[in-house]
Design brief:
- By secondary structure, the protein is mainly alpha-helical.
- It has one domain (2-340).
- It has 21 helices and no strands.
- The longest helix is centred in the N-terminal third of the chain and has 23 residues, at 97-119.
Length: 352
Amino acid sequence: MGVYYIYFFILAFLTTIGSVGKTRLNRQAIIFLMCLCTWLLIGLRDSTVGVDTRSYIDSWGHISTWSFPRLLNEMVHQKEQLYLLICWLTGQFTSNYTVYLLVWAAFPAVALYITMRKYLETPTQYFEVIVVMCMLGLYAFFVAGIRQTAAISIVLLSFKYLKDGKLAKFLLCIAVAYLIHNSCVVFIIAYPLRYVKVKWWFPVVIIGLHILSSYIKIDLVVRLAAALFKDRFISYGTVYLSTQNNSAFIVQFVLYLICYFNIKKLIKKDYSNNILFVLLTMALFFQSMSGMLAEFSRVSFYFCVFYLILLPRALSEFKPENRFYINVSFIAFCILLLLFVSKTNLPTYHFA
């Protein structure tokens, strides 16, 4: 856990010097340094960090041995061609798996950099992005599921086109993500959802669905999931019964309520916050359905990643006289939970 103490200390230090005093760093430097630390943390991990890391490295070693004609043949007959291409290209330059991991770690690091720079304003908000990423289990997933991590990163970047109503560019982003991990196709539903207005009863429906899914198994849902996810359903839908489903729902719901508390002010300031809140509602919908099928917990990541934008905005909407204490308390409380209570959101870490 020592590396996480150092990581959060660096983030706190950057936040402090970026917020106060004459030595205040500009926002781009703060964002760059925070994302650089995150990139190195994800990319320099040992192969034992993350449940799927070793299998991805073994698959990369196998793909690296292909000739170019075989690569083309495999890309014709397999799905997720961009994943195969990136693996093959990386393998032509190096056999060091750390370089391979650094290449894939660049996806979430770059997505975080662009998101912070485009949608957020203060060093405190940047720090909150990292903390929320860890609280939601996204960091733990980023050091495990390489393909879906890259797809989630591209989905996060697609928000620019989603909020602006640029359908062609939005679909292009999803198409690129699909070539890495085909489950991202579910995020296409986000486009019609951009027209949905936030309603007061959203949280009530989510709680009801969560309770319902704990007692009901819907065969039709299972069959649809098996058809959509195919090989992944075999791997995750029947085997991956996450013990984190309820705790993940609780964490998401608490963060959801923080956003809900300030949603009227947020929407009045920027209508894109309405779209973000609807996406978070969908995240909770899929997370609540994980009681029926655990794969929905993974699908939820495509939507809950947008907490990284809306939650820091929501925390900045409290009264100015309380804002500093609320933000500092939130960050401190989350870090204490991550370091001393949670056993899964910060996986045991070893450098390569």
